[in-house]
Amino acid sequence: MKILNSVLIFAILVISLSSCSSSPICECFEVRLEIKNMYQEVDGIEATFKMTQTQEYKDLKAKKKECKNVIEPEFFDKVKTEYKNEEDLLRGELGDCEAVMELLDKH
Description:
Blueprint: H1 2-19, H2 24-41, H3 45-52, H4 55-79, H5 86-94, H6 98-106
Helix pairs in contact: 1-2, 2-4, 2-6
């Protein structure tokens, strides 16, 4: 079951990243969504801890850190003056990014 779950998570990651538009900022939101989904799929403290020790999770967290420190600040600095709030900015600039829309709709 553990191997099947890991394979399933990896497959979802590959599919979700390939469905993302080519922009780096969209990929960042895909990573955030995938991490959120990983947490929702586990139940309990022990299962959560095990999930956070997987290579897939560690890779996603590393990418999220890069996004948070480099990609997102560059993107938001470029477009922040054009919109009145973050949600309008995300919908306006990244409306074609499925992960952004899914995260906004769940918010």
